[in-house]
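Q: Got a minute? One more chain.
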Amino acid sequence: MESCRRTGLSGVLCSLSLLCVILDIQLDGVLGATHVEIEHHLEMGRKLLAAGQLAEALSHYHSAVEGDSKNYLTYYKRAAVFLAMGKSKSALPDLTRAIQLKPDFLAARLQRGNILLKQGITQEAKDDFNAVLQRSPDHEEAQDQLIKANELEELQEEAHAAYHQGDYSATITVLERVIEISPWDPESRELRADCYIRMGDPQKAIQDLTPTTRLRNDNRAAFLKLSLLHYRLGEHHNSLNHIRECLKLDQDDKECFSHYKQVKKLSKQLDSAEGFIQDDRCQEAIDKYESVMKTEPNVEYYTNLAKERICFCLVKIKLPMEAIDACSEAHQRTPRNANVLRDRAEAYILNQDYEKAVEDYQEAREFDSDSNDIREGLERAQKLLKISRKRDYYKILGVNRNANKQEIIKAYRKLAQQWHPDNFQSESEKKEAEKKFIDIASAKEVLTDPEMRQKFDAGEDPLDPENQQGGGGGQQGWPFHFNPFESGGSFHFKFQYN
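A: Always. Here it is, folded:
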């Protein structure tokens, strides 16, 4: 207070003056401690960055920036970590702040210009490169980057001009160089994606659109477009994933939610149908694929898929005529589909039309020469065709290939009674009846024996001497291991009906 009197200050003012002195002393102590901490964070950040531990380094640089918001170097170093992490958008504000604090900081200017150039922001990039060259006219990197920025500006104008003229191929050619210079520019990729869509190449459009979901904040439009592209290609799981990403950004987005409901419903039906097939519940799978066609009648892929799988299911449940009709319709829709040709070939085999089965398998092999199923199916169809030209046991008894044992025995009884040689008088008729009777008995033996029937269905005649171990010999086709006709005409036939 004595000092206040000497200076002529009033009591209140003197008290405030003394308080400020005390605060200055305390603040000096705090700042001193903070400086030590900041140096520690900077040193730790440097070491962790050198060790490649980017997340840990970033944490220390955050602390350094918070401790001293006026130090341009802390912002610059934190920007370096962001760039090392591939987060160029996060690095830009730090570089800008470093330049504000130190306008002649050329390293930050050059780094920011490089980022802006890669983002396709040509004018601002040129401003940074020119600022570097004003202070350092011989700076080679700044000179090279300025040339690139001018080239990019011209290419961008050329690409947009070609696009507006409808020359999408030329636009794509120009944009290849544009994207080479500015790989982080979402607009160029979106423009090229649109060109690919217009030229009928959705896969390349997807390749361009995918990175734009990261290059733009809240890029719901890109997620929706990606979902639609995958949907039209029949990639319903990918479509569902992308539309969910859109809804994560805004669950109330009407366009995304509307498409989400459609994709979710269709995807559930498709997965359910394939699940039924895996569980051998083919009729339920057919019903579900019918629902698929009603849910999405406008995208050809899903109708074609449904027709193909219905064809497959009808073969699985052994309905040859229905299968042939369904497979033929599917084949008309997708003539180069090897699976449809394979399934129709199997339907023809069920219908005992082996020539057509061979033709379908041969055509299927042209479209898929590496498929073991098709190769093995062709070999089996060719064997069956060869056998059918000799003896087809199904045709002999007049039964379908999927006939059960009871149906086979019933057909055998009827034909055995009809063609019993004792029913005929003349020698010529009796000989013809003997031949038919042997064939009927042979057919019954093969088709009622599971092992022999399996061999026959695989294209091998178990009663053909050529297929017997040790070669020919013996009476071909007589199932009871002797020929009663060799014992003379007075023999009376007795046979079992079971």
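A: Residues 1-33, 470-498 have pLDDT under 50 and may be disordered.
Q: Perfect, thanks.
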